[in-house]
Structures are given as C-alpha cells and as structure tokens.
C-alpha cells in the first residue's frame, strides 16, 4: 500500500454507477477504498455487489456514521437528487472533499453548495457528465452554435434515469447560448396536435428526452442552417466511459477551491 494513497468513500456504492466507481477506485494504485454507503445494501459485504471490491468492507446505510468511522479524504457521490444535497452537506461538515456525479441539482442548489464550500473551506467538484467524449461534444456544440442560428438536442438515457432532461443536455444548451452574441432562433409551431411533442425549451433550444432499455447515455445536437444540418453526437456503450473522468476528478479535487462545476474545468 502506497503512503500517498487517497482515502475514498463511495456514496451510492450499490447502484449501477456506484459499482463501476468502486471497481475503478479499487483498481487505482494511488487510491484506497475505505467506505461504501448505500441503504439498498446496508449490512451486506461490498463484494456481494462488486466481487472485485475490498473483502473487508461492509456496506453502510448511514453516511454520517460511515464518514466518522472510515475517515475518508474524498466522498464520491452517485445517488439521487432526493438525497444528494444532504450527502454533500454531511461530507463538507466532516471536512471531506466531494466529487459528485448525481444530476438534477438546481441553480439554487449549486449556490447553496458554493456557500457551504466557502464556509467549511472544503472543495467540491460537481459534473453533469464525467465522460471525456461527452465534454468534448459540449465544447464542439458551443463552437458550432456561433455559426448556426437554429439548434435542437435529443438526449437518450436508460430507463432507470429519474430526471429529464439530463443535466448534460441542460448544460449543453447553456454553453451554446453563452457562445453567441445574440439568442438562438426558435422555430415555433402554430398547432401542436400532441402537447409536449416539441420537447422542453431551454435557451430557445428544444430538448427531447428518450428513456428506454438499451441506452446508457447518448446525446445528439442538431444545428440547422440554409440548405444544411450539422449533427454532433456522443454515444456511450458502457458506464466504464465515465471512469477516467471520475478518477481524474478524484486526483485533482483536493487542489481545488470552493465549488467547481463541470469536468471541463479540470481537463
């Protein structure tokens, strides 16, 4: 065991993303998994959910107690919008830095986290998407938005994703709008036979959400101009695509200050 190993606790360890994080942290030579929290697996050996995980860790159902017992430096949270704010507060109160991939946080939530980080002087990195490819997709979409006046977003996720539209889609729309010196142009329809058929609207960009088995996390940005369209698409086939970004965030979060939003801030 290396002296410089980072001590990591995973919140939401038994979920689909959490299991991948546990596996990635366990395999990283510069990290030590010291705690796993998930009410769904409370009292069970972690290896029942992640066979390659540490054999000596039992899943806890109580984050505050687990933080006190395991003394991590960093909490990685992939849970749900219903509990993530409480989890961040508990970690920051314990002096534990946060890497958060849970989506569904509002602008108000982010302001609250920023105040907590400043008050406790503990850093937190929140990213709507930890995929390097997805972050490049957002960057390219923002660049293209300066050249096209019309755009729509179609995001497709697995059936278990509880929020819609995705945080990535909302962030993409905001980045595209920020890259322009005038608003995007929206194409209205005078008669919608089915309410909602044009999707939701953010920054004058219609966003369409698909939820069904077979998808992991895909997004397509369609931009239109006179006589042409441009499609920028990111397709993920496994949640493993998020792990390089998660590990990068873990390795850098202790060097950050306050709240940092978006993986692109450390790429």
Question: Can you walk me through this structure?
Answer:
The protein is of the alpha/beta class. The protein folds into 2 domains: 6-129 and 240-265, 3-Layer(aba) Sandwich (Rossmann fold); 132-235, Dihydrodipicolinate Reductase, domain 2, CATH 3.30.360. It is built from 7 helices and 11 strands. It has a 6-stranded parallel sheet, sandwiched between helices. Helix 3 (84-93) runs parallel beside helix 4 and helix 5 runs parallel beside helix 6 (167-178). The chain starts with 5 loop residues before the first strand and ends in a 6-residue tail after the last strand.
* Count of strand segments: 11
Query: How many helical stretches?
Result: 7
Percent of residues in helices comes to 25-40%
- Determine the CATH superfamily of the largest domain: NAD(P)-binding Rossmann-like Domain
Under the CATH scheme, the architecture of the largest domain is 3-Layer(aba) Sandwich
Beta-strand percentage range: 15-25%
Largest sheet: 6 strands, parallel
Q: Write the CATH fold name of the largest domain.
A: Rossmann fold
CATH class of the largest domain reads Alpha Beta
Q: Briefly note the structural class of the backbone.
A: alpha/beta
Order of helices and strands: EHEHEHEHEHEHEEEEHE
- Stretches where pLDDT is under 50 for at least 5 consecutive residues are none
Q: Output mean pLDDT.
A: 95
Radius of gyration: 20 Å
């Amino acid at each position: 065991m290396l002296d410089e190993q980072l001590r990591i606790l995973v919140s939401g360890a038994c979920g689909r993303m959490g299991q991948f994080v546990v596996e990635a942290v366990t395999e990283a030579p510069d990290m030590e998994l010291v705690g796993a929290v998930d009410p769904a697996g409370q009292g069970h050996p972690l290896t029942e959910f992640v066979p390659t995980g540490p054999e000596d860790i039992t899943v806890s159902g109580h984050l505050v107690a687990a933080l006190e017992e395991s003394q991590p430096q960093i909490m990685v949270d992939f849970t749900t919008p219903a509990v993530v704010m409480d989890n961040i507060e508990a970690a920051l109160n314990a002096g534990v830095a946060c890497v958060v991939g849970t989506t569904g946080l509002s602008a108000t939530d982010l302001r609250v986290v920023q105040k907590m980080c400043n008050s406790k002087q503990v850093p937190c990195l929140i990213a709507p998407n930890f995929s390097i490819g997805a972050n490049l997709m957002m960057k390219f979409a923002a660049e293209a938005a300066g050249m096209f006046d019309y755009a729509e977003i179609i995001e497709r996720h697995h059936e278990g994703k509880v929020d819609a539209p995705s945080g990535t889609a909302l962030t993409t729309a905001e980045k595209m709008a920020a890259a322009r010196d005038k608003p995007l142009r929206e194409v209205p329809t005078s008669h919608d036979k089915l309410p909602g058929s044009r999707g939701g609207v953010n920054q004058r960009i219609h966003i369409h959400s698909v939820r069904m088995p077979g998808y992991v996390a895909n997004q397509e940005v369609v931009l239109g101009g006179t006589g042409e369209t441009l499609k920028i698409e990111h397709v993920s086939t496994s949640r493993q695509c998020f792990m390089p970004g998660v590990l990068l965030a873990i390795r850098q979060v202790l060097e950050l200050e306050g709240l940092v939003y978006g993986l692109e801030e450390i790429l």
